[in-house]
Amino acid sequence: MTDVTATLEPPGSIAVIGAGPLGIEAALYGRFLGYDVTLFEAVAVAHSVAGKRDEPIPMMPDRCVSPLARGALEAQAGDADPQPLPLSIGEWIDRVWLPLTETDLLRGRLRCPVRVTAMGLVSAGAEDEAAEETGDDDDDVPPDFQLTLDDGTSADFEAVIVATGAESEEISRSFALPADYLFAVGRQQTGDAEVDFWGGLKEIVAVYAALGGRADLDLYQPRRG
Hints:
The structure is a single chain. By secondary structure, this protein is α/β, with parallel strands linked by helices. The chain has helices at 21-33, 47-50, 67-77, 89-100, 126-134, 193-211, and strands at 13-17, 36-40, 110-111, 116-122, 144-149, 154-157, 159-162, 172-173, 182-184. The strands form 2 sheets. A 5-stranded parallel sheet has the order 3-2-1-7-9, covered by helices on one side. A hairpin with a 4-residue loop joins strand 5 (144-149) and strand 6 (154-157). The relative contact order is 0.21. This is Dihydropyrimidine dehydrogenase subunit A.
């Protein structure tokens, strides 16, 4: 984040790149706030951990999903019997991350497998034209991000959250960093999966607080019994 005045009100458009745990959480958080979110994944949901399906979940089971995401799963389940907490990585994927992409907030928002290959800037289109017609100064209208996709198409968004992890390949860019409205979460890795996950959740809070022009915005507060 480079400018505290770089705000975006819902239903502004946001691309989240990477459908791992933090990418899904970031997309869910944005949808809960009313943003128009699209989630891009190049391979498969949570594919970075899918090769370890038989291994124990790398954190305490009650800490493997945010309160917001848990609430979305419970709302989707309705009166069904609650599922037991996941104990293996395979159960984590099958009981948490895949079902979250099919909740009311995220259904139809996941584009997979679609890889984002490049990122550029384009004028804000209709907003620029309206400013020209009225004679208003359009210097305050930021450009959109144009994402080039490996299916031969492109898509424009007002903000982008990159949630592909610390070791992911860099997406080609035609502009310099830092850039307003472009965020990254989950880049800081400590080697402790639980610490990294909850640290990433704090970064998601900071992203949406910045977009909302607020000092703090936390939907991850533990629910009271």
